[in-house]
Amino acid sequence: MGDSAWAAVTQSSAFVFGLEAAGEDSRVMQWYWGPRLPDEALAEVVRQAPRRIHSGFHDPRDVDELLPVEGGARWGVPSLQVTYEGGVRSVELTFAEAVVADSEIELVLRDPLGLRVGLHVRVASEVVERWVSLTNEGEHAVRLGRVDSGSWVIPERAGYRYTGVAGAWAQETQLHRAELAVGETTFTSRTGTTSHRANPWIMIDAGDATEELGEVWSVALAWSGSWRLTAQRRPEGDVAVTAGFGHDGPTWHLAPGESLLTPPVLGLRTCGGYGAASRAWHDYARHHVLPTPFEERPVLYNSWEATWFDVHEEGQIELARRAADLGVELFVVDDGWFGGRVDDRRGLGDWWPNPDRFPRGLSKLFDTVRELGMRAGLWVEPEMVNPDSDLYREHPDWVLHYPGRRRDTLRHQLVLNYGRADVREWAIGWLSGLVSEYGLDYFKWDMNRSFTQAGWPDAGERADLLWIEHTRGVYAVLDTLRERHPGLRIESCSGGGGRVDFGILRRTDEVWTSDNTDARDRQAIQEGYSYLYPACAMSAWVTDSPNPHTRREVPLAYRFHVAMAGVLGIGGDLTRWSAEELEQARSLVAAYKAVRPVIQHGRLHRLAGDPGVTASAVQYSHEDRVVVLAYNPFALAKRPPRRVRLAGLDPSALYESAEGERWHGQTLMSHGLELPTWFITGPDYRSEMVVLRRVSG
């Protein structure tokens, strides 16, 4: 576009930004973020920058900056805070150059006190990726406060509504939607991980978007540690969203010559409502994030809820035989197989088979698993240690701690500092050794507590960097494992859904969505998850009834149909299932395998209802097939809906059911499909799966 304005253009959108220089104050501004414009029209949005009222109390331009700093005439939410030698806290940046390489541009700004700031922009499918690089080119150390990856301006609208998810352990990703309040609305995690309480993304619309209609702007952060996202709505109407790693309190020490790179913050603008936004995020995940997005995920069995800590060779082999008979393809041994681990008070850190429970090691068990036609997987918790363990007795300095302060345990465990090279080397050694010795195909990587007493005594002034370096250390271990063992697949778990984000998904194949396996509760959890993340990365289990967490009784078919909305797993005590239940499970596993490519790789439409509360349904479409999973937790009181209207079909094509009935796509979308689950009264917890195939058009 020119020497001072640039555009990041996707197939349907444009993000236009450029330089506004006023004396020595260079500001990189966002000029436009909306529908794609003709190339010759892109410059027009720069000429028509909005005029605003200035005063001695307010400079409105800072809301439009890609990286508003703390310094000069700015009073909004800063994306960058720096303290220089002598306590100077005013950042003064001057534009230096634009560096263009392939599909990426870096705008370089410099502060006379020696800080180099690079603003990076890149396009990936419909997503604009942004991040910041900082280098201390001065003679003195600097201390960084807030270091966000970028700020995004939401275009002017008559109103602003936000959508996000929040929750708690066993209640993750609960959908929240409300008017964006005037002021600053902050979503954050201070736990050291992504957390159960919030997830690092937000969607904003004008208050008129629906599931299938309306413009939606999304901002998401690809980071698995503590994070912070602030949406500010000015009284005069402007809205901007800034996001990055870290939280209030820690600061980052940058010595002369040192650099810091922030994680990507991602922007997506779509029309077509929340559904189109979700589908665009799913496409981005498949094509730019997930390491193995187009594999078919195997049907998994996990032993945790069947045995808890009572894990031994004979019992695991019996479960493996029963799982294989159901059609399971991957058998995962959960907690309790190692060291002195007979409960949660001891053994974490001692990663060798418990000699009393597995006198022949794990070889006999996993040899049997493979003889039964299944792959072999193992639960690990590499970031944790029990004080009652050989590892802690040898290396008490490896955990997060402050000298002279308590070392509080949660779940009787402490957190190992993955910022330390020796901790990472230790982890890679035994993890890689387990894969090689036992021919493992799968790790379930767990992380069961938040950071406390988060000190790093050996690091001196750099100690706060552990909030960054721990996460990067986990990334490094995962990357090394995948490089050494290309066939290894990894599941991210953090006490359930405490580490779900685009950062961890770049290194893992799926995530454990929640420790809550109750089918009714899982419906709401899975709905919130689906707003950003695809079904191929969502692990979901069928467990026992009554559920061990909620004591709710739910029929087996309903439990299966809920779990079939993602990557199907089974976690019940199969030794207690009746012959009828086993036969039904065998049939449902086979039914899932028949439609697995559609669910795991298809386009998702959330069709109707309040999942887990009212009649609801989700649809997956892939190539020539359509799968609808419908649920009704409670008997209907002679009120609609009684038909489900499908979405995203070819209106002129014919679609055929397994029974041979045919409908035009337009009929299915406009008139709908009659579902017995919805319109026939009966017991609670009714569900069904409908499979359609496109036969013409």
Could you explain how this protein is built, in words?
Keywords: Glycosidase, Hydrolase. It catalyses: Hydrolysis of terminal, non-reducing alpha-D-galactose residues in alpha-D-galactosides, including galactose oligosaccharides, galactomannans and galactolipids. The chain folds into three domains: about 5-290, alpha-galactosidase from lactobacil brevis (Beta-galactosidase, Chain A, domain 5, Distorted Sandwich); about 330-510, Aldolase class I (TIM Barrel); about 615-695, Immunoglobulin-like. The protein is built from 13 helices and 38 strands. It is α+β, with helices and mostly antiparallel strands and about 700 residues long. Strands 5, 6, 7, 8, 10, 11, 13, 14, 18 and 19 form a ten-stranded antiparallel β-sheet that branches. Helix 7 (about 420-440) packs parallel to helix 8 (about 465-485), helix 9 (about 520-530) packs parallel to helix 10 and helix 10 runs parallel beside helix 11. The model has no long low-confidence stretch (mean pLDDT about 95).
Keywords:
38 strands; Beta-galactosidase, Chain A, domain 5; Aldolase_TIM; Immunoglobulin-like; 697 residues; TIM Barrel; Glyco_hydro_36; glycosidase; 3 domains; alpha+beta
Write a concise synopsis of the structure shown.
By secondary structure, this protein is α+β, with helices and mostly antiparallel strands.
Kindly state the percentage of residues in helix: 10-25%
Ends distance = 43 Å
* CATH homolog superfamily of the largest domain: alpha-galactosidase from lactobacil brevis
CATH architecture of the largest domain: Distorted Sandwich
Q: Could you state the oligomeric state of the chains shown?
A: single chain
Q: Could you give the count of β-strands?
A: 38
As for the CATH topology of the largest domain, it is Beta-galactosidase, Chain A, domain 5
- What is the count of structural domains? 3
Structural class: alpha+beta
Mean pLDDT: 96
